[in-house]
Structure formats: C-alpha cells, structure tokens
C-alpha cells in the first residue's frame, strides 16, 4: 500500500491512497490542473485513479471534485447528506458517478471503512483503508482523519493500530488565542466542531500507535495559528514521555506540505 498528501491546509486538501497501480483520492480540494500536476510529481498516471471519496462538503475539500471526476470518468463516493450539499454546485455527472456511501465501500481494490468525525459541516468522516484481498492474509492499514474538533470514540476504534496515519494537527492553542483572528472564529476553531489542536492530537496518538505503526503525517496545519516546527515539537514532546518512544523507535513523523505533494509513503505487505 502507499499514500501521499497532494495538498494540505485551508487552501485545499487531497490525499491519494493506493495499492500497486490502483488508487483513489480522499477529497479533492484543489483544481483539476493542480491535481494532475501533483499526481505527476508522484509518478501516478490519471488512468490509475479510480474514484474520489469526500469527507465533507467544505470548499477546501471539494473544489476540484466535479472537474476531476468528469475528466477521469470516475465515481465520487459520499454520504447521502453530503450529496445533498454537493449536487447544486458540482456540475454535470453521470448517474453511475454518484455513489452513496453508508459505512464502507470498495474502490481500487481497497476496502474503505468510513467513520464519523466532529466538524461543523453537514456530516464529516475519516477512513480506514486496507487491501481488499491481501496476498498473505493480512493487510497494512492506513487511517485518515482531518477536520474534527474532538477525538471521537469512532476515531479511537478505527485508527488504533494503523500502520500509517494522516491526521489533523491544525493549531497551537496559544498561537490561536493570541493571534489576530476574530473572537467568533477562535471559538469556532477551538470548539467541539472545529479543528484539533496539536496536544489533542498527541493524546489521540498515544492510544492509536502500536508496534506496527510506521509513519504519521500531520495534516491541515493552520497557516496563521501553527507552524510545522511547533506541531512536531509539541507532539514529539508528548510522545517521548510515553511507551510509544520505546516501542516504536523507527516511527517517523512528518508534516504535509501545503501546496505540493508529500513524498509517496510505501508500506510493504506483511
């Protein structure tokens, strides 16, 4: 299995997940041109993208979804309530490109389990992805969860023991409250339906990381209320004081770039 962020942050979010030469996108919040350009950097051909899953309907997650789906002739997977939000603005699609998702689906030879997050959208979701038919009986697991104000119980269940995680480290609490955002926006971001703060994520990681966890990508960092250095130092400080540091000496944390793709992370099968 492999994964990479194509873009990450309030200006646009998209993640590619795949196995061999088959892939799908989690969100498509950047333009068609940017999507194809960033995939090319990773040496992933447009013909190797087989679908798009939408976590929620905010513009930084759906900006390019209609254009990309039409260009590549691929389906879009979303919940019924998110489709209600998408339909007026997404443009013309064939009926078979509109796939309603409840709790799980398969795409590109991958089994995708959907779980709720807590965000101020119609609905919001994360995913746990595994190979549908692993060769040796067990598959690596990739967990993705961005745009959530709290760590939900469903997140704990889905993300625990994943081999790789793409998870939100949106803001530093002190930077947010001392920064220039208006009061209502500070309340929204820090609330239960906003975004995760660095230390909130770290506390979640303490429960999710197990001995097999190899890679963690910190995503959706705020351009105003966080920095890659702040996010990494806060999270590493908390992790180093726990059993995680002793049991996962090869664990690597990285920050997703805002506009360019993260390097392709390849997880070898068991």
Automatic annotation (TrEMBL):
InterPro entries: Metallo-B-lactamas, RibonucZ/Hydroxyglut_hydro, WalJ/YycJ-like. Keywords: Hydrolase. It comes from the Bacteria. Gene3D superfamilies: Ribonuclease Z/Hydroxyacylglutathione hydrolase-like. Residues 11-171 form the Metallo-beta-lactamase domain. One of its GO terms (molecular function) is hydrolase activity. SUPFAM superfamilies: Metallo-hydrolase/oxidoreductase (SSF56281). This is MBL fold metallo-hydrolase. It comes from Desulfitobacterium hafniense.
